[in-house]
Amino acid sequence: MQKVEGGSAAVRADHLHKVLEVRFLTEDAYLIRCERGSLQFKAGQCVNLGFPGAGVNREYSIYSGEDALHLDFLIKEVKGGIVSVQLKSMKPGDHVEIHGCYGDFRIKNPEHDGRPHLFIGTGTGIAPFHAFVQSYPGLDYKVVHGIRFARETYDRQDYAADRYASCVSREDGGDFRGRLTDYLKKNPAAKDSICYLCGNRAMISETYELLRSQGVPSDNILSEAFF
Question: Are residues 67 and 155 in the same domain?
Answer without folding.
Answer: no
